[in-house]
Amino acid sequence: MAEPTQATLSEHNRSRILSHLYHHGVESRASIAKALELTPAAITKITAKLLEAGVIDETGDIGGSRNRRSIGLTLDKSRFHVVGVKFARSLVEIGVFDLAGKQLADREITAIDPEDIPSAIADVHRIVESLLAADDGIVAIGMAVPGPYLRNIGRTAVVSSMEEWRKVNFLDEFSDAFSVPVFVEHDARAGALAQHLFDPDCDTGSLAYYLIGEGVGLGVLENGRTINGSQGAATEIGHISIDANGERCECGNYGCLESMCSAVTIHRMLVEDGRIVPDAASMTHRDACNALFAAAASGNADARGLVEKIGTIVGYGAVTIFNAFNPERIVLGDIVAGAGQPLLDAVQRVVDERVIPELAEHTTISLSRLPADAAVTGAAAVAITQFLANPSMFFEIA
Amino acid sequence: MAEPTQATLSEHNRSRILSHLYHHGVESRASIAKALELTPAAITKITAKLLEAGVIDETGDIGGSRNRRSIGLTLDKSRFHVVGVKFARSLVEIGVFDLAGKQLADREITAIDPEDIPSAIADVHRIVESLLAADDGIVAIGMAVPGPYLRNIGRTAVVSSMEEWRKVNFLDEFSDAFSVPVFVEHDARAGALAQHLFDPDCDTGSLAYYLIGEGVGLGVLENGRTINGSQGAATEIGHISIDANGERCECGNYGCLESMCSAVTIHRMLVEDGRIVPDAASMTHRDACNALFAAAASGNADARGLVEKIGTIVGYGAVTIFNAFNPERIVLGDIVAGAGQPLLDAVQRVVDERVIPELAEHTTISLSRLPADAAVTGAAAVAITQFLANPSMFFEIA
């Protein structure tokens, strides 16, 4: 029974080596040993098993220190593939990615009829099965679902616009459904993992991904791990009140951030306004928001004013993120982040005014640099994170 | 160089065994092995070293399973002592405690002249030295300081009423000042550790301690560890806005929770009111609050109304704690928690109205059961937590 702990240690070191190769490319055994403070003997032993299992490869000689040559080790990110499945309120997007987050085939998109969730679920089963049949490089499936999500039991918590989804238990439905493991995560937390894996500037263990889309969510890494809470429902920034005397939200709380700056709210504002985006009523939330941002960029003063107003509210949320989580980096992502620099400027202005200077100075706020249409990469990142953390789930390692 | 990792594993298992004995009293090697999933051989090896170092003791035979007798192991909580030093805005309290949190001598209290911080610091040095000289069972010193505290660099962040304290770097000032190690922690986080160690009902790794005193603070355990943030300034609930359009706080933010329900604010309300506690102006913050709570308990309708109003605001903060951290348990502590059941009822009412039912049902909200005058126990808990986590800092372990 000591084996679990010793085995845990071995797996931990395997994971550290794989993660190091993931983030640093080709490395010699000696440089890995130095970076991870492991003995050369331990590195030799662990990498031999990873080589034998086909997880990593040896490359030709690379330059070593003091003119010694040494053999490089590498994790071939293109060899292993994952499926990412992103559930949103109105559609499901499914894509195949390599470990670098590169999309390998056209995304599959299934519209969701809120009255017929079972048929959307059946579509997901069918599409994933066909992707698995077509690509034997797929090692895992990641799924991202909107919050509030009860991560530990696998269901969304009650929010009336997602009422029908409450009946779906994602873990029961998908955990053992396919020939490879499935991992389900809250969408904003999935986004935080994607930033951490795919943007080299976000290679920090203290990161907040602030998702401002149809919903408003947050994923926070503290010491490289997501903050989850006892039911997996922590970091629900969208339902934190920024005005306890404000209007009631469908979650039960009052003055929720989400109700003031989501893409849904912005779309409603545009329809009510009627002038900035005249045909907003016939557009999707995303298209209406993008039309607003385009109008602002082309100099429309009303559009600029509205972006400024939205940025101020997004800034209030950022101030709460500082005081609640004090991350080293905050990344704004999803539809509303598409407003770009004017939005970021408004957020930064609010932060500079309202956050204690020693905290504000320490934290970088930026826009996501991942492709805006690739929200599904977050789902892929969930699977890749597990691949790097628990290699023995995916390979026979002697 | 593999040694650090192997040594870390050994220390980790020593810490787990010590913590298990701390929370469970006398246990046989076999029951420890079972609880911690370690082999009997590993337990025998580790406990032998702990016995040799004098950290734990063998007791006589205890009942084993199936009528086998076995020898008990125990951590004598009365043998090892710690000093707790609690810095508040207007005074420093210093006490000696055993590992169970039992106070061993009268507390020493030093008033702070805000214009002469250096003399308060000198007092702390002098008092701690004399306590160390009088008790060679003291193994560590814990200090608790008000937030916002930049834990990693050792200073409070700027808040104007604490301006002079900014010049003090607690780590520089105290880390190497004494013959035993010193640990400094944010006061609400120290309070969370105290609840975790000293209240058996709080033996959960998912705990929020909601400190409502002269300041309003929060300490959160996630998976048994405090959430700290990149600068150690996370979980600053007192400066999270509950009304982004509210009045400006000295921290720079608007509508901060602390400015609406701290003991300082309540005291000011009582002075302005003039009727509920007629001589409030001549009282300390604590005495004025206690007079209010006594008036409410004796049936004064205005006093009851004010406690209800304060409880509602404390409840808004609790709703934010649910949405930000989703803890399994929330404990209300410090001066304002002295209002007792009427305050707790108001908080629960707000939570029941505003939190998603599946989250609200899962989390217990309670009043601290630790002695209200023993805020300094939090400082002691900081030291005891380190003693249990890093035994090799305190003993020669071969």
From TrEMBL, chains A, B:
SUPFAM superfamilies assigned to the protein according to its UniProt record, in alphabetical order: Actin-like ATPase domain, Winged helix' DNA-binding domain
Gene3D superfamilies hit by this protein: 3.30.420.40, Winged helix-like DNA-binding domain superfamily/Winged helix DNA-binding domain
InterPro entries from the UniProt entry: ArsR-like_HTH, ATPase_NBD, ROK, ROK_cs, WH-like_DNA-bd_sf, WH_DNA-bd_sf
Similarity-based family: Belongs to the ROK (NagC/XylR) family.
PANTHER family associated with the record: BIFUNCTIONAL UDP-N-ACETYLGLUCOSAMINE 2-EPIMERASE_N-ACETYLMANNOSAMINE KINASE, ROK (REPRESSOR, ORF, KINASE) FAMILY
Protein name: ROK family transcriptional regulator
